[in-house]
Amino acid sequence: MHNFEYFTPTRVIFGKEAEKETGRLVKEQNCKKVFLHYGGNSAKKSGLLDRVCRSLEGEGIEYTMLGGVIPNPHLSLVREGIEVCKKEGVDFILAVGGGSVIDSAKAIGYGAANEGDVWDFYDEKRSPKACLPIGTILTIAAAGSEMSDSSVITNEDGWLKRGYSNDKCRCKFAILNPELTYTLPDYQTQCGCVDILMHTMERYLNHGENMEMTDGISEALMRTVIKNARILKNEPENYEARAEVMWAGSLSHNGLTGCGTDGGDWASHQIEHELGGMFDVAHGAGLAAVWGSWARYVYKDSIERFVKFAENVMGIPHTENQEETVLAGIAAMEDFYRSVNMPTSLKELGIEVTDEQIGELAEKCTFFGRRTVGCVKALGKEDIIKIYEAAR
Q1: What region holds the Fe-containing alcohol dehydrogenase-like C-terminal domain (predicted)?
Q2: Are strands 134-138 and 173-176 parallel, antiparallel or unpaired?
Q3: Are the beta carbons of 178 and 246 closer than 8 angstroms?
């Protein structure tokens, strides 16, 4: 078991009509002006944005708005948001949306509270001294950004997708109403379920001994998401299933499933980030498309963990042949992906990748030779090329 620090300062308000508490929660932050950040037209069409604005107005809180966040949020919109915050004297950011909106809000929070170019933080050139306080109203259960210390931004100059983690960006509060996810297309719902699973699997499939308690929480979380993803495939307005998935999303990425571990592997995420940067694919679908190829490439370096995953999560019967058990577990997870219409290859993801593009993806993934990725097996450029080729 590894030493760990567990920090979850985000206040969670969970349940039906929880968004009605927005004005009160923002007022408690003693702010003067709110920057309301959101994505596309769905927040407007659903009436959510109007309800949020009325709640703010009911508490006498001024606000300014900026929409337009897209999946794999762009640095250009972040920079626009920073300028608006500085010009309008904003002192609180309210993100209404999913992980992309929250990630964009966090980046804006860094940029508005610090001098210089916000990309420096994501490019690992320096660290922020502060971040504007942030709250969120979650509309997609997936990324767990509402309770995490991380955000991911895509720089259109070179299409570099980079993540950055710092406790300063953790949300002050997160409003979680499962009803707000009813209108999501099934594809987005299932992409979210894959993302939740992967946030847990990245920590669980590591290269060390975990705490029994942490393993048990992680295994239950993964089984719960798999069960309820299947339910939502046929019953998209099943409140209980939506609630289970939404809460799992927050727990999967708030640090709980990493307590006592070595920090996790995260290679699958890094490999997918480059696909997202180059091809703008949905994050969850991209993870599903590469995970099996990664798992088959690395499992021998941590075979006991993969056996535990196969037996305790995927329900593979115990045998004396560890390799057979592991491969059956990997195949079972891929069968689950297919059962909810998620891809298990780049071709199924809908992209054709050339050898030249694979080389570029691998080069970017290693930060142009400055790093390896993963802890189960440290992956350099040639390893990553082989995984992309296997996933093709």
Answers
A1: 192-391
A2: parallel
A3: yes
Nearest to 388 by CA among 231, 260, 270: 270
Contact 53, 38 (CB under 8 A): no
Domain ranges of the chain: 11-180, 184-391
| Assigned token pair, 58 | 């009911």
Q: Are strands 62-66 and 134-138 parallel, antiparallel or unpaired?
A: unpaired
Contact present, 106 and 145 (Cβ < 8 Å): yes
- 184-391: CATH topology is Dehydroquinate synthase-like, alpha domain (1.20.1090)
**Which amino acid would we find at residue 124?**
E
Contact 170, 10 (CB under 8 A): yes
* pLDDT tens digits, 282-304: 999 999 999 999 999 999 999 99
Residue 263 has a pLDDT of 85
Across the chain, mean pLDDT equals 96
- 175 three-state secondary structure: strand
Question: Tens of pLDDT along 314-349?
Answer: 999 999 999 999 999 999 999 999 999 999 999 999
Helix (H, G, I), strand (E, B) or coil at 133: coil
Architecture of domain 11-180: 3-Layer(aba) Sandwich (3.40)
